[in-house]
Specification:
It is built from two helices and three strands; from the N terminus they run βαβαβ. By secondary structure, it is an alpha+beta fold. It has one domain (about 10-64): Ribosomal Protein L30, Chain: A (2-Layer Sandwich). Strands 2-1-3 form a three-stranded antiparallel β-sheet, with no helix packed on it. α1 packs antiparallel against α2.
């Protein structure tokens, strides 16, 4: 049986790491960000949505 394709999110870091709290830095690192304007494709699940919500002022999200 074929696996159902999971929805994905395209997440882009729009602000740098300077001046962030350690918790926000760790969240961005856990998402995989290393540079400004970097785009990552992440699965659309509750864990990723929660991480994005905690740094929503630093990232842009597109459903893709």
């Amino acid at each position: 049986m074929a696996r159902k394709k999971e929805n994905q999110l395209v997440v882009k870091l729009v602000r740098g790491f300077a001046g962030l709290s350690p918790r926000q830095r760790k969240t961005l690192a856990a998402l995989g960000f290393t540079k400004v304007n970097q785009e990552l494709i992440k699965p659309d699940n509750d864990a990723i949505r929660g991480m994005i919500a905690s740094v929503s002022h630093l990232v842009e999200v597109k459903e893709g």
